Amino acid sequence: MRRRLLATSAAVLAGLVLAPAAARGDAGIFIPAERVDGGDVVGLGDLDIARDGTGAMVYVKREAGVSHVFAARLVNGAWQAPERLDGNLTTASSQPAVSAGDGGRLAIAYISGGALFTVTRPAADQPYTGPQLLSSAASNPSVDLSINNVAYVSFTIPGGGGGDVVVARKDRTTSQFAGIPGALDVAQGSPAGIGGGRSRVAVAADGVALVVWGEANRVVARRVFETRISTAPQDATADLLGGFGGGPADVPDVDVQDDSSFAWVTYREAFSDGHTHAVARHLVGSQFDPPVAIDGQGFPGVDNAGPPRVDINGRGEGYAASALGGTAFGAVLKDRNFNAGVPLGPSFPSLGLPVAAVDEAGDGLVAWQAADLTIHARAYDNVRASRTVQAPQRDTPLSNLGAGPADAANGLEAAADRAGDAAVAFAQGVPGNKAIMVASFDRAPGAFRLSTGTSFRNAARTPLTWSPAFELWGPLTYSVEVDGKVVGTTTTERFALPPTVRDGRHRWRVIATDRRGQVTRTPRRTLRQDGTAPRATVRVSGARRSGRPIGVAVRATDANRAGRPSSGLRRVTIAWGDGSRTVASRAAHAYRRGSFTLRVSVRDRAGNVTVVRRRLTIR
After folding, report:
1. Backbone dihedral angles phi then psi of residue 226, each to the nearest 5 degrees
2. Per-residue pLDDT averaged across 73-90, rounded?
3. Measured between alpha carbons, how far is 516 from 553 in angstroms, rounded to an integer?
4. Is 161 exposed, middle or buried (0-12, 13-18, 19+ CB in 10 A)?
């Protein structure tokens, strides 16, 4: 799923101290890791966040010595209590994968007892479906859910040469997957989808999927159109890069733009310089652009690369993460080109396992396991109007030092929503006492505006209003400030002033505060308050006989008795009581015989009204 992350990072940790929240609507803070579950945790499987800020993580935890799959959902920025997904299965489960869609939709796949099962959640307010058996013998599932609720799962089944890569599809109107006949393999009998060749799948907004996998030491990509497998698989492996010949390739990763014609594939490949490197290739239509090295070292290499990861948004902006020896690298995808990776910090040799996340504005982060077995991240701030490639921001430690060593080998994942919020999930601790931890980057509330104008009003009767501040993770509290003092709070975008605010001219603004205490303020604006009704005297003259004119003279004023500014009179309305009405302060009217109630309304420009009534009997 595509997401949006933000710009301003603040160093945190040590004492779990948060940096002061900025007043800008585009700021945010890193939140140190929080424990989601613990005990006999085996490891983290996957994490995904939809564009609307909902999402889930899946992981494996032992109960009574048997491994089972659990999910923790992300709702309003808070992780919910874990839920077991294989409750009716007694066999050991493993390899869970998850993808999230707007509205709390989830698609999940996992292995139990050597068989592949899927579970879906149609919406946040609906329960999980029961486990659906897709294949009695399978491994290495990967799942992705499009923004239009079409999902694909790719996986490996036993086959000639050790394995075949196959795929199943869920239509947007259903909650069940259906297998697509035929294997994706380029050649029957060749080993596909096993070991480092495990498959990965990504689905574009138009519902077209792209599957990548390793086959016979090559990396292959193939599209799936609904239930039809493309007849033109593409070999992504680089035959030559930097003057060195290519060799065996594995651990592919993939992501697509909203338009399925454009995708990026990353993988690790050995070259004739004697080292392995992280490589990225852009798939445009049915052809791959030339390969690009993204591990930052160029050629000749000095170390061997770890598995690279890639994340791009719907517009084709994103980041790739890789590790080379003892250093984590981040590469920026900008203007349809991947730039060389830059070092982010020391990583644990061969197990730094960096991951990337990007939002819809092109901001992002890369997280990795450092040499001291802690989790670190560096954020990126994309400026679309600039052609300058964004540099990583400061190094921020995320893991809770009191929870033991991080264990990226058993899970490290990152994801972001469209608003700029991001989560980094990982396993931390020692066997038998391991926890699932989640750190996050929480974007401050978005900038918003006051709606109420500057003309006089009675804000106790007609509430002040403003546009909502953009926030996906949790409810907001709005504080209304008048002349530098908070006069009340609300969770809606309207507020009636208390009577303690006197008539006259004031300055006001609204402050939005999120669940983390970050604030965004509107600019101050003039408030002209008039809560006092005008005063009026009514004189009635003339003979009260049928057909004879009755005169009415209204004397009114809106002047404030305390001398404060007032809005002034707007109009005087005389309702004669027989259905006739006159807008004037002086008028005459002839009645027929009967009893009538004369009603005089005096309204000021702030909407305050004074009503004077007279009972008339006409003979």
Report:
1. 55, -110
2. 95
3. 61
4. middle
Q: Which residues of 302-341 are buried (b: 16+ CB within 10 A; e: fewer)?
A: ebbbbbbbbbbbbbbbbbbbbbbbebbbbbbbbeeebbeb
**Which tops the pLDDT comparison, 107 or 24?**
107
pLDDT (tens digit per residue) in 208-229:
999 999 999 999 999 999 999 9
Nearest to 82 by CA among 135, 45, 31: 45
- Per-residue model confidence as pLDDT tens digits over 342-397: 999 999 888 899 999 999 999 999 999 999 999 999 999 999 999 999 999 999 99
Reported as a single tens digit per residue, the pLDDT across 442-486 is 999 999 999 999 999 999 999 999 999 999 998 999 999 999 999
| Structural domains of the chain, with CATH | 28-443 (2.130.10.10), 464-529 (2.60.40.10), 535-618 (2.60.40.10)
CB 120 within 8 A of CB 171: no
Residue 100 CA to residue 183 CA, distance in Å, equals: 26
| 13 pLDDT above the threshold of 50 | no
How many whole angstroms separate alpha carbon 280 and alpha carbon 565?
68
Contact 411, 427 (CB under 8 A): yes
E strand intervals along 304-421: 309-312, 318-324, 327-334, 337-338, 342-346, 355-358, 364-369, 375-380, 396-397, 412-416
Separation CA 254–CA 262 (nearest Å): 11
Cα 140 from Cα 359, distance rounded (Å): 27
432: left (phi over 0), alpha (psi -120 to 50) or beta: left
Q: Which amino acid is at 470?
A: F
Chain mean position to CA 120 = 20
* Bridge partners of residue 305, in order along the sequence: 324
Rounded distance, CA 244 to CA 277, Å? 11
Q: Which residue has the tokens 């080109």?
A: 337
Question: How many Å apart are CA 225 and CA 184, to the nearest integer?
Answer: 13
**pLDDT above 80: residue 21:** no
Q: Per-residue b/e over 228-257, b at no fewer than 16 CB within 10 Å?
A: ebbeebbebbbeebeebebebbbbbbbbbb
Q: How far apart are CA 221 and CA 215, in angstroms?
A: 10
Q: How many CA within 13 A on the CB side of residue 379?
A: 29
Question: Any idea which residue has 């799962």 for tokens?
Answer: 153
Q: What gap in Å lies between CA 216 and CA 461, rounded to an integer?
A: 75
* Residue pair 607/462 in contact by the 8 Å Cβ criterion: yes
DSSP states of 518-559:
-EEEPPPEEEEE-----EEEEEEES--STTSEEEEEEEEE--
Long-range pairs for 552-557: beta carbons < 8 A, 24 or more residues apart: 552/586, 552/587, 552/588, 552/589, 552/598, 552/600, 553/585, 553/586, 554/585, 554/586, 554/600, 554/602, 554/612, 555/585, 556/585, 556/602, 556/610
What is the identity of the amino acid at 401?
L
Whole-angstrom distance, CA of residue 92 vs CA of residue 80: 24
Beta bridge pairs of residue 326:
none
Q: Which residue has the tokens 């890369």?
A: 366
The pair of structure tokens assigned to 43 is 């490891």
Upper half-sphere CA count for residue 50 (Cβ side, 13 Å): 27
| CB-count burial class (<10 Å; 0-12, 13-18, 19+) for 541 | exposed
